[in-house]
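[job 0412] stage=fold_complex status=start
inputs:
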Amino acid sequence: MLTQDYFELFGVEPGFEVDAERLMHRYRELQKVLHPDRYVNASDQERHLAMQQAAQVNDGYQTLKDPLSRARYLLTQRGIEEAPEQATIRDVDFLEEQMELRETLAEIRSDADPQGSIFHFLAALNAKEKAYISQLSAAFAEADEAALNEAGALVQRLRFVRRLQQEAEAIEEELL
Amino acid sequence: MAYSDKVMDHYENPRNVGSFEKGDDSVGTGMVGAPACGDVMKLQIKVDEDGVISDARFKTYGCGSAIASSSLLTEWVKGKTLQEATEIKNTDIAEELALPPVKVHCSVLAEDAVKAAIADYQAKHHGESGKKEKE
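[job 0412] stage=fold_complex status=done
writing structure:
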């Protein structure tokens, strides 16, 4: 059986900062070991187990590779329960900023230079994402209860930013 | 996803879109967001001297169900006292719009938005709300 702990599985230090190269290297190694070609002559049971493990390795890699899902995974590991999917937030300043960004994006197609505008919009959004990620890194380094709660709030903000990025990228694609 | 006729109607002809002056004493503003889907909703109520909601506005960035939920709610709160408006449940909205289970959270967002708007109005009128509100 493989370990259930993704950090252990990939042999990287548990924490928000992960060695991306080591993570990818170990991922490829595990993929090779669990490749279906190696199980052609194995029993059904062994083949089935290898398939399950390969799926687990994929999940683990996707989880640790992305800073947002890595942060969510770390918070769960540290015993911070994630708010239920229906939970809403009332952080007025943050939401007002989100509202303004949505308004800008909604009107971007009618700009004089929509391609230029969407380029700058996405650049600003990516800078915002980076800023939240470095704040997350600082919060996880601190690691006391207040810092972990702060990390939870940052995760929620990052989810809004990700959603906006998806919408902006869809518009960018449309404008190309 | 197939939307119900009522959702489509509110989505295509949203009622009471827009905003009131946030600083206005007779206005309560509710701003809420759902991290799971990235939806952002602003719902504002205008309250008259008798503590009755005389008008409402909304602005929602989100899916059709979120837009329909807030649009419907602005119609429902008009003519209600603040107390009556707090009693509107998300399940009433979900039922009226025939929202599928995966979209019920949109009605939760709308209920939270109106509650936040009422709380904002009450915070502005702290200490005088007792004589202004109808029981």
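[job 0412] summary: The mean pLDDT of chain A is 94.
[job 0412] exit 0
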